[in-house]
Amino acid sequence: MFAHRTAGTGVVSALVLLAVAAVFPPPAAAAFSTGPSAFCHVTDGAFTDCTPGGGVEEWSDISFLAGLGTSAGAVVYTDQSTAPPRLLLMYDLLLHQEPLPVDSFFDITFNIFEHGELELYEVRCFGDNTFRVFEDGEDITEEADTVDCAVGFNGHNVQVELEIETLVTYSPDIPLFWSPAAPQPRPCPPGEPGCQPQPLAPPGFVETSSTIVIASSDGTTKVAGLPVGGITPASLCDRATGTGVLVDLLGLLAGGNHGRFVSQVAHDARMALASLADFGIIAPSQIGALHGCVVSTLGK
User: Fold this and answer.
1) What is the pLDDT of residue 68?
2) Alpha helix (H) ranges present in the chain?
3) What is the number of H-type helices and E-type strands within the chain?
4) How far is residue 209 from each of residues 70, 74, 216, 223, measured CA to CA in Å?
5) Which has fewest Cβ within 10 Å: 11, 18, 62, 267?
6) What is the DSSP letter of 243?
7) pLDDT of 242-279, one tens digit each?
């Protein structure tokens, strides 16, 4: 169950799938571990100067994925905070070069695992810095006090920050799919040399990126990218080559007891695949083969 906050910091322990994209500071490898950040987090739709006079520190020590996404791609940062426990995200929408209209919103959809079942949650972050929260299509904003979202504009492009309390709202240590989407951006900012005036794109959204994230209980966040609009079974796990996004991501969990590692892979792979199927990314009939592919590849 969700709830509304106004600003804050955060942490988590959860394996997450994020539909997101990235293209800014030094990009990390296809699958990597990042965080927790040594700096502040403030949910205000901006990169915050945590210590005035020392430069803008927020998100500066967090890795991100680059080169994914569509024409509406976002640079996406993901981190955790332990006090209080929060999952934190920043979407830097580089191609959205006008403020988000007050009646328009950035849409973030993801699963929550409640009472043994996957539930669909949606947060709509509006241009006037309000937001609405939905659970399986029902508006639950009035009872939502563990979620906060803010939309900002830095003079160049739109930025959106989201935070979710992990112990109350979010499902710790469970792989879940996230799908952010934004209104179609203008092809170029008004006034730019060579930019021809055009009406705003008709109503409709584009997926900004696609990512799988593990928000681990040790405070680190493990991330791997997926091709936006092009996720195939082979991109998740290819038995012939022993490669794939789930193989790369869950391989980051290796270390220590091998039997315990394989057991964790089996659990996390099944949860991730169930969430993907819940969103229609893969068919339920494909879960078994993909699960076997991931476990056998990493269990060698």
Assistant:
1) 54
2) 233-236, 245-251, 258-278, 287-298
3) 4, 14
4) 7, 7, 21, 13
5) 267
6) B
7) 999 999 999 999 988 999 999 999 999 999 999 899 88
Other CB atoms within 10 Å distance of the CB of residue 216: 21
Angle in degrees, CA 219, 89, 92, rounded to 5: 140
Q: Record the pTM.
A: 0.81
Higher local confidence (pLDDT), 288 or 87? 288
Distance CA 161, CA 148 (A): 8
Six token digits for residue 36 = 């927790």
- Rounded-to-integer distance, Cα 242 and Cα 13, Å: 27
- For residue 187, give the amino acid letter: P
Nearest CA-CA partner of 99 in 54, 155, 138: 155
Q: What CA–CA distances, in Å, run from 57 to 14, 46, 96, 135, 149?
A: 25, 11, 23, 34, 20
Task: Report which residue type is found at 41.
Answer: H
For residue 24, give the amino acid letter: F
β-pair partners for 93: 158
Own/partner pairs, 55-59, CB within 8 angstroms, 24+ separation: 59/90
Q: Is 115 within 8 Å of 107 (Cβ atoms)?
A: no
Place of tokens 């936006």: 228
Asked if 287 and 270 count as a contact pair (C-beta separation under 8 A), the reply is yes
CA-CA-CA-CA dihedral for 129, 130, 135, 141, to nearest 10: 140
Return the DSSP state at 58: T
Q: What angle do CA 60, 65, 70 make, to 5 degrees?
A: 125
Full 3-state SS string of 131-152: EEEEECCEECHHHCCCEEEEEE
Q: What's the rounded Cα separation, in Å, for the pair 120 and 137? A: 8
Q: Is the pLDDT of residue 292 over 70?
A: yes
